[in-house]
Amino acid sequence: MTTEVRVPTLGESVTEATVATWFKKPGDAVAVDEMLCELETDKVTVEVPSPAAGTLADIIAAEGDTVGVDALLATIAEGASAAAPAPAAAPAAAPAAAPAAAAKSVDVMVPTLGESVTEATVSTWFKKVGDAVAQDEMLCELETDKVSVEVPAPAAGILTEIIAKEGDTVDATAKLAILSAGEGAVAAAPAAAPAPAAAAAPAAGKDIKDGPAAEKAMAEAGLSRDAVTGTGRDGRATKTDVAAAVAAAKAAPAPVAAAPRAPVAADDAAREERVKMTRLRQTIAKRLKDAQNTAAILTTYNEVDMTEVMALRNQYKDQFEKKHGVRLGFMSFFTKACCHALKEVPEVNAEIDGTDIVYKNFVHMGVAAGTPQGLVVPVIRDTDQMSFAEIEKAISEKGRRARDGKLSMAEMQGGTFTISNGGVYGSLMSSPILNPPQSGILGMHKIQDRPMVINGEIKIRPMMYLALSYDHRIVDGKGAVTFLVRVKEALEDPRRLLMDL
């Protein structure tokens, strides 16, 4: 016996609805009054219960279809034979699935994200469902508020399911995907691969219109269509999708800029491009603003004659690289000079903890590095105990890892002082912002020939402006100026570094 499932009464003056979501699929057993699907009108969302117990035999109106009152939605097979259609369909699929019986499912989990990091955003999938993958081959990339994390395949096989899609936020214990590994895994690929293509094909061929209830909900919530991920047929947005987008917006970090955006002309808006900030960029913005709101940041300036450092570097750079396998740059000189100055002015190397000042009897130097994802500050530990060669090797290695997005959480924690070199980008002078909870940051700038008065004569010298931003709550002006003068003296006469002067 077959029972028809029809569109219920939708309400006064409502003549049609859109099928938003099917909760059951053909072959599923259903109970009386169990919810089969959800319809959306321009006023309400209507749930359609099952009029009888049995098996859902056929779905007539698919997700996204517009139906009138009393239209046929589906049919239900009742009685003792109701369960028969499901087993009957199984043998047809069995031959294709049989070779995969020897394969086993392997879960792809979120890797360890690091201390205090509880969630990440899936930024990029390098593989799609149906692709063959080798063990340790990169499957996807996650973004946390500090670093990018690559996720390797735990085994060789076929990527059979992607659970966390690009843009999804996942916690530290979440499952990202499922692999089919072992014998027979390759045979499962042809069956799995067409599914995404088939689902995407209709969307490419026609204009997709969301359900009226979804459109109304988006208008009421003030959401743009781009902010809602549609899960209905052909990617249509449903009222449930809009509710999820609203909830996600409320849970997201507060926007960095509180000021409302100025009105934009329609023709200008059509030429704009809106790109969501990465988690790393959001965290950078928040931390920099927090630093301004918390610390009493003041900047003092000086300039340094780079003649002696450049001469020393030019004299020994070939021998240095030949012996140590790394180029001799200016960063090791500045790092050494800062370590010496920090010993004399320890408050620049300290931090405030409540009502206490914590003095660090060591120097963990943060070296700011620009990457395609944003500014990161890897930390080189115990630089006050390192040689020029060790410093250069550490800076080179950390810089490379930063650009490749492979820095670990531990490599960016615990810094006591930071050096930022804006000169590599051509900056002549700037005021760097503190990297909390540190109390000092040195800004290096472009080396530029300028006329200087030397012993009563005007000479052309390679000069660099230096900027020290410091937390005036803990560092007085005298200490800040003294620190910067000591750095200047050490660089203008590098022999002082050798003699610890």
UniProtKB/TrEMBL annotation:
Peripheral subunit-binding (PSBD) domain span: 209-246
Entry cofactors: (R)-lipoate
GO terms for cellular component: cytosol; oxoglutarate dehydrogenase complex
Boundaries of every Lipoyl-binding domain copy: 2-77, 105-180
BP GO annotations: L-lysine catabolic process to acetyl-CoA via saccharopine; tricarboxylic acid cycle
InterPro entries noted in UniProt: 2-oxoacid_dehydrogenase (IPR050537), 2-oxoacid_DH_actylTfrase (IPR001078), Biotin_lipoyl (IPR000089), CAT-like_dom_sf (IPR023213), E3-bd_dom_sf (IPR036625), PSBD (IPR004167), Single_hybrid_motif (IPR011053), SucB (IPR006255)
GO molecular function, one term: dihydrolipoyllysine-residue succinyltransferase activity
Keywords: Acyltransferase, Lipoyl, Transferase, Tricarboxylic acid cycle
Pfam families: 2-oxoacid_dh, Biotin_lipoyl, E3_binding
Reactions listed under catalytic activity: N(6)-[(R)-dihydrolipoyl]-L-lysyl-[protein] + succinyl-CoA = N(6)-[(R)-S(8)-succinyldihydrolipoyl]-L-lysyl-[protein] + CoA
Pathway membership, UniProt: Amino-acid degradation; L-lysine degradation via saccharopine pathway; glutaryl-CoA from L-lysine: step 6/6
Enzyme Commission designation: 2.3.1.61
Subunit structure: Forms a 24-polypeptide structural core with octahedral symmetry. Part of the 2-oxoglutarate dehydrogenase (OGDH) complex composed of E1 (2-oxoglutarate dehydrogenase), E2 (dihydrolipoamide succinyltransferase) and E3 (dihydrolipoamide dehydrogenase); the complex contains multiple copies of the three enzymatic components (E1, E2 and E3).
Role, per record: E2 component of the 2-oxoglutarate dehydrogenase (OGDH) complex which catalyzes the second step in the conversion of 2-oxoglutarate to succinyl-CoA and CO(2).
Family: Belongs to the 2-oxoacid dehydrogenase family.
Protein name, UniProt field: Dihydrolipoyllysine-residue succinyltransferase component of 2-oxoglutarate dehydrogenase complex
Species this chain originates from: Pseudoprimorskyibacter insulae
Gene: sucB
